Amino acid sequence: MFNSIMFVVQILFAVLGLYQLFLTFFGWHRKKEDLSHKPQKSFALLIAAHNEEQVVGALIENLQKMKYPRELYDIFVICDNCTDGTVDVVKSYDGVYACVRENPNQRGKGFAVEWMLKELWQMPRSYDGVAIFDADNLVATDFLQYMNNDLCNGFQVVQGYLDTKNPNDSWVSSANAINYWFCNRLWQLPRTNLGLANFLGGTGMVFDSKLLQEMGWGATSLVEDLEFTVRCIKRGIYPKFNFEAKVFDEKPITFQASARQRLRWMQGHFDVTRKHMLPLLWQGIKDRSWTKIDAALYVFNAYNYLAGFCIAAIVWGDIFLSGGVRVTSVYNMLPIWVSIPYMLYIFIQIPLSMHLAKVNWKLYLRIPTFLLFTLSWWPITVHAFFTQNNKKWSHTQHTRVIRLEEVQSKQL
């Protein structure tokens, strides 16, 4: 009986894995985004900052040098429950607004953004679009040009290309960078090419102001980006991914900091899955919308990680404890002419995505440690599953002061 249940569960998750694998083929081709509209949209650039005195100045200076008419955008820094010198740093820059928020009972980026938007709607100037960044980011100077183009073309929610500004700092930061290159090319881009909905990544996001005023933010979970994505898709508003509009994020350099950050993400992911996955799936079935069904399957990914760990633990535990194989493995039943190409393509996805991203050859040497990093998701996911009711937001400290010119020079 147990073996039969295990077999059915393996089939279910194998089908989900094959579906995602099938999507990756549509990420091989990329059509370059054009710039067919002149600058005309105005933007409010919001920077979420909690104790970011060391890095926020570099981002402000970066945003002040955008290749976009300065009169068409303003910079607002949300100084959220700061106890360091963030406010003083922000005020030292002319034309930048330091918006101080003090509410220790509601910590986290989602609450900070929700508060800032209410403040923004009461200001005398109105904006066509709202962009959201993290204080540790760097932004390509043509970012607003591409976002202006998307808003002019009628898109209401747009996610920029997320990259890493410090991939060479440690094996942990390089693993995060590889993960970004993989997701951009083989998760996000296929959905763009197939006309499906893309997913917000927490920063480098742009929204039509009228949509935000109509919907409200309402996303205050530990993964506010995923929560808002689901809210949009339920309303038939499908976020778009702009491959050309690049944002560079600082990633943790120690395993402990990364594990803490990923635990928060997975706790939030389980929370959003529990609340929204089944309603979104049912809505997709009723509406005969594959876009909504695909989104529901994406939201379900937290359980894919959990199931992967549990299945592997049971199968390998059975082998070592019993000295034989009593639990049937689906993959052992595949003919060799199917299993070998299947496994080869799974492993080739990482170097393929790195090749398509044209990264420095030295980073290919980090692939073995990336695989170790990937395995570390399993215990983190199990821990997150049993602590998913934890809503406490944890801050990731950022200290790496890098200028955009440094990042771009290393990519050449």
UniProtKB/TrEMBL annotation:
<feature type="transmembrane region" description="Helical">
    <location>
        <begin position="336"/>
        <end position="356"/>
    </location>
</feature>
<comment type="similarity">
    <text>Belongs to the glycosyltransferase 2 family.</text>
</comment>
<keyword id="KW-0472">Membrane</keyword>
<dbReference type="GO" id="GO:0016757">
    <property type="term" value="F:glycosyltransferase activity"/>
</dbReference>
<keyword id="KW-0812">Transmembrane</keyword>
<feature type="transmembrane region" description="Helical">
    <location>
        <begin position="6"/>
        <end position="28"/>
    </location>
</feature>
<dbReference type="InterPro" id="IPR029044">
    <property type="entry name" value="Nucleotide-diphossugar_trans"/>
</dbReference>
<protein>
    <submittedName>
        <fullName>Glycosyl transferase family 2</fullName>
    </submittedName>
</protein>
<dbReference type="Pfam" id="PF13641">
    <property type="entry name" value="Glyco_tranf_2_3"/>
</dbReference>
<keyword id="KW-1133">Transmembrane helix</keyword>
<feature type="transmembrane region" description="Helical">
    <location>
        <begin position="363"/>
        <end position="386"/>
    </location>
</feature>
<keyword id="KW-0808">Transferase</keyword>
<feature type="transmembrane region" description="Helical">
    <location>
        <begin position="295"/>
        <end position="316"/>
    </location>
</feature>
<keyword id="KW-0328">Glycosyltransferase</keyword>
